[in-house]
Amino acid sequence: MNNVRGLVAASVISIQNSCFIYPACQKCFSRLILDSRRFNCLKCGCTGEAKDASYRYRLSLKIADTSDLFDITVFGSCLDPFFGITADNLQRCIQDFNQLSGDTNTDESPGVLVQAVETCFIGKRFIFGV
After folding, report:
1. pLDDT by residue (tens digit) across 27-79?
2. Is residue 2 part of a domain?
3. Which residues form the Replication factor A C-terminal domain (predicted)?
4. Domain tally for the chain?
5. 17, 60 in Cβ contact below 8 A?
6. Is residue 68 part of a domain?
7. pLDDT at residue 113 greater than cutoff 80
8. Considering the entire predicted model, what is its pTM?
9. Is 58 domain-assigned?
10. What burial letters (b/e) apply to 42-51, b meaning 16+ CB within 10 Å?
11. Is the separation of the CB atoms in 17 and 56 below 8 Å?
12. Which residues contact 55 (CB under 8 A, 6 or more apart)?
């Protein structure tokens, strides 16, 4: 694998999915397997109560510079300033919203949030570390 790192100035073309946060292991940042009462990390074996699971941002984007298209994923707290809230707190807001609206699909963000993220990112130019 090539260990060369660099910066790419590119514009966001699209948001690749509507799931902007995921339950993350605090040791290895892998996605946790959640059931109604427990969580389990398949990578490092960490376990705990589902109510204590932490969340992390994951924003999958299609971007373009002057000559190429790229699929990239931006992880973690660097997205806090864009959302104005931590991933843990956004998850709580989504849960509250879903309870009020009766929506049981916890794998997708509410449509209004998806629209806000698209408005914030699509067509804007950013510098990405790759």
Report:
1. 999 999 998 899 999 999 999 999 999 999 999 999 999 999 999 999 999 99
2. no
3. 8-95
4. 1
5. yes
6. yes
7. yes
8. 0.84
9. yes
10. eeeeeeeeee
11. no
12. 21, 22, 23, 24, 87, 88, 90, 91
| pLDDT confidence of residue 4 | 83
Which of 20, 124, 34 has the alpha carbon at shortest distance from 79? Answer: 20
CA distances from 114 to 34, 52, 96, 111, 118 (A): 23, 26, 16, 5, 6
Q: Would you mind telling me the total number of residues written for the chain in this entry?
A: 130
Look at residues 81, 57, 61 and name the one whose alpha carbon lies nearest to residue 73. Answer: 61
Note down the domain range covering 104.
7-129
What is the per-residue pLDDT for 120? 94
User: Which CATH number covers residue 38?
Assistant: 2.40.50.140
Beta bridge partners, 9, equal 127
